Amino acid sequence: MPTLFLPLPDSVAQKPEMKKRTAQFSLTKPPSCPLRLLFTAAMAFGPLVGCHAAPTTGKAAPPKTATAPATPAHPNIIFVLADDMGYGDLGCYGGQGVKTPNVDRLAAEGIRFTQFYVNSPLCSPSRTAFTTGQYPARWKITSYIDNRGLNQSRGMAQWLDVKAPTVARSLASAGYMTGHFGKWHMGGGRDVGEAPLITEYGFAQSLTQFEGLGDRVLPVMSAQNGRPEYKLPLGVASEKLGRGKVTWAPRSQITTAFVNRALSFINEAQKNRKPFFIDLWPDDVHSPYDPPEQLRGNGAKRQLYRGVVTNMDTELAPLFAAIRNNPRLRGNTLVIFASDNGPEGGAGLAGPFRGGKGELYEGGIREPFILWGPGILPAKQQGTVNTTAVVSGVDFLPSILKIAGVKDIPKGDGTDLSATFTGKATTGRTQPLFWKRPPDREGNGDQPLPDLAVRDGNWKLLVQEDGTQPHLYNLATDEGETKDLATAQLQIVQRLTKAVLDWNHTLPVVKLAVVGGFNDATHFDLKKGDHLGRNQAPNVAKRGFTITTKFNAATPGGVLVAQGGVAQGYTLFFDKAGKLNFLERAGGVATTITSPDPVTGSHTVIARLGADRSLTLTIDGKVVAQGQATALIASQPVDGLDVGADTAGAVGPYDTPNPFNGDIESATIDLEAPLD
Fold first, then answer.
1. pLDDT value, residue 511
2. Which residues of 587-620 are buried (b: 16+ CB within 10 A; e: fewer)?
């Protein structure tokens, strides 16, 4: 078992300055950073650097090549992919209030890119692009893969087709040992137990969590705020599917399990004298957030998230150190670090960019991208920042296969950027990049989210699928997408609109579909523990509704009623102060009204959203809070309804499932007539 790094107290930590390097062309060097000494019990892995460098921007066009040593014929490749990490969460990308010394050291010794894009703002399609080198919509994976009915209602595949090209399959055919250790989320989980095993996609070995099949390690949530330990419900559902050995572990140690498995795999590959490729895809830093006690801060959502970021960085340390301190591996291994999509609201940060998870604005699709390899990258490029090369997830497959010496590279949507990945060039892709909005992230009726997006050069266009409502930004001067130039640049709008619509026509048609129709009932009698799927839940789109519940809260905490998720929905819940909250979310924007005092004991509560967008919270016949929502819920929420918990995507500012601590005598929901 590898030993985790433990930080020395600040009073005794050594702080030598890093050796300065002069960056050339448009590659700028991060500022020197203090060295924070970390150690293991055996003192085997040496010092690590925490680099908190702000991102930089370069304008000059870089030369195409730089002097470099010959790339090893078959280098080892490790791809670390974080989950839901924002562009601005790492220290080396300007993050504040979080410590990530081990990942920061990769950037300080490697190349950090500032114009890297994933090909979807959600996890399953983003991972599909990395894996196949093709836009994920080509495989009907346009949003996160969920249960069978929800996948079908969104026109999605239940899993990635095994006929799709994969990085692992091509590398295995070239003699590589291939392993996937971590989150998969391209099929298998919830109620879909017949999806292909991960090993059917070209991986010789795998260990995953509840978003895949095969051997897996599933999370136990820690006891907090008076709540006992419990197994994550998605893990319980996964265990029932079988098809692999299941191990349960504390959620804050899941990444360590993946790292340990990767280290064993590396040892096996070395004994067999085989090059290796590893996907090391932590479940971190996705919710629910459950860091170790010492990293929980004040328990607020963002503090818990930052604790998970720091904990993941610590858990990754043994893997990085094992490569760095083995001369044979250090000289022949390329380590890549990225994240799959933008941050969840209220948790991570997108840095200077607009938007976040689920959106086609920069904050949802621009991500960290770091390459490290002392024996592969030219010395002059180590410790530099590439501010000009546009790189994307679909470029991963052709670039990695070229680096590995694979002769027969599958055709796809990516560009071979192997020279840039190995530091021999500084240029990025020249072809446009395209995106398609996840079908369950519509926005609201007044402000729908753009359906499509394209980046060509420094121009980025966002537009609806019928070509209307164009928004145009010049990312060279407006990376925050604040100044819409659509009316001033009509020719560019016309050119890019045609390009993105033509691209969209090459994709399978994927639209939200109603399976069997939504429930047309207007009155629902419910009880604690009830769960109604999307089609059985109250149809709250474009209408007012009233929730009436009788409960006994001896120790207030948890969710009384919730329907929907991060895009559309509502929730009636207790906050950590014991106050009762009624929250409505439309187009991702939440409006909350809160009782002035904590609520304990037995009460009858009425929470109402009126057709005029008014919010009212009444306790035992007395109105205690009122407000005005920004909009009605625009469409039927994708996530279903729960009584006494929130088992799907969190509607409110809490970790799911957030079970209610007391008894619920009754709960009813009454719907008003829908607005036209």
1. 59
2. bbebbbbbbeeebeeeeebbbbbbeebebbbbbe
